[in-house]
Each structure stands twice: as C-alpha cells, then as structure tokens.
C-alpha cells in the first residue's frame, strides 16, 4: 500500500469514526481487535470459521477490505470482513433518513385568566383548534390574579368549557391540576382516521 493510499484510507477511517461516535457505536477494526480467536464472516456472508485475529486480518487485507468486530459480546467475538468506509456511509445515510422521517411534536401553550371575556375565550379556542389540527399538543393554563386564587372552581369550570369546545379535534391527555397560581391541563390531538 503506497503512502498516499494509506493516508487517504486513514483520513477516511477517522471520518467514519466521527460518524460512529455520533451514532454512539464503538466498533473495533483491524489492529484494534486484540482477541486471540474470532469467528469470521466473509464479505458475501459465508462463515469462514474460528480463526486467530492475525489470520483474519491477513485475509481481510488480501481482499483489500477491513476486519470489523460486529459482536464483541459473543463467545468468540464475531468479526466481519467488509468495506468499512462503505459501511460508515450507509450507516450515516440510514440515520439521516430516520431523522428526516421523524415527526417532532411540539407543545404549544394557551394561557388564559380566570376572568376571561367570551370573545377572548372563543379566540383562544380557535387558536387551539388550529394547533391541534396541525398535530401539536397543547398546554392550557388558567392563571389567577391577586385574590382570584380564592376561587379555583372558576378556573376548573373554564377548563371544562375549553375541553368541550375542542373535543372534536383533541382529547385531554392530563386532567386539570393546580400548579402554583395556575391550573394546567394538557390536550393532545385526536388520531387521524
């Protein structure tokens, strides 16, 4: 192997190790494998049997591939002869695809006071319906000002009205609960049919 080829190969392995660090996998390759005997699987998936680590590395280098320990907890550890750079690339591609398909559910908050007016309440309900139709969860809170804290039943009644108003698009995930000077309720969107 020439010096340029070795340097390029080494730099590529460093990049792959960075990708593996991101994916929280620690795979040992080539000289990092210190076990006496390993079960070797060839690049095409055939078992070569139990070999010494040196012999397995020699076979891998003859095929211009890498020896990768894929199951360190097995007895003897399982190693596969593969193109490590290609494996890293495919792994990163799979992770990127999984991240792209992942839906992030955000929690939107609707705040009201216990003395809210009718029109303001309807506006809050309309906004909540938009959030729920968009697939977001809601945290609905009723805050008590000054001496209104002496009448928590007003907040409970307000949340009950709110729950009925959004019942077509959402269901209560966590019922109303007093937290400090507020009553909080969580609403999640109904599953699409």
In short:
Helix content is 40%, strand content 29%. By secondary structure, it is α+β, with helices and mostly antiparallel strands.
SSE diagram, text form:
Layout: H1 3-22, E1 28-29, E2 37-41, E3 47-52, H2 53-62, E4 66-71, E5 78-82, H3 84-101, E6 107-113, H4 118-133, E7 137-143, H5 152-165, E8 170-179, E9 182-189
Parallel strand pairs: 2-5, 6-7
Antiparallel strand pairs: 1-4, 2-3, 4-5, 7-9, 8-9
Helix pairs in contact: 1-3
Keywords:
alpha+beta, five-stranded mixed sheet, single chain
Task: Please give a structural write-up.
α1 (3-22) packs parallel to α3. Helix content is 40%, strand content 29%. The termini are far apart. It is built from 5 helices and 9 strands, in the order αβββαββαβαβαββ.
Distance between the first and last residues' Cα: 60 Å
How many alpha or pi helices? 5
* Overall average pLDDT: 80
Strand percent estimate: 25-35%
In helices, the fraction of residues equals 40-55%
Q: Unreliable stretches, pLDDT < 50, 5 or more residues?
A: 18-24
Strand order of the largest sheet: 1-4-5-2-3
What's the number of extended β-strand segments? 9
Rg to the nearest angstrom? 30 Å
Order of helices and strands: HEEEHEEHEHEHEE
**Coarse morphology:** rod-shaped
């Amino acid at each position: 192997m020439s010096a340029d080829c070795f340097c390029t190969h080494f730099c590529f392995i460093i990049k792959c190790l960075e990708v593996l660090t991101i994916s929280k996998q620690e795979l040992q390759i080539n000289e990092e494998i210190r076990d006496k005997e390993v079960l070797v699987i060839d690049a095409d998936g055939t078992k070569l049997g139990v070999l010494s680590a040196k012999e397995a590395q020699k076979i891998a280098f003859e095929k211009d591939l890498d020896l990768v320990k894929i199951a360190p907890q097995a007895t003897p550890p399982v190693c596969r002869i593969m193109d490590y750079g290609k494996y890293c690339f495919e792994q990163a591609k799979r992770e990127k695809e999984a991240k792209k398909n992942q839906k992030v559910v955000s929690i939107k908050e609707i705040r009201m006071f216990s003395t809210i007016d009718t029109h303001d309440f309807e506006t809050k309900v309309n906004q909540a319906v938009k959030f729920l139709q968009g697939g977001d969860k809601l945290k609905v809170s009723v805050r008590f000002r000054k001496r209104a804290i002496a009448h928590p039943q007003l907040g409970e009644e307000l949340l009950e009205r709110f729950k009925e108003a959004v019942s077509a698009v959402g269901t209560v995930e966590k019922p109303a609960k007093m937290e400090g000077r507020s009553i909080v309720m969580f609403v999640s969107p109904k599953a699409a049919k």
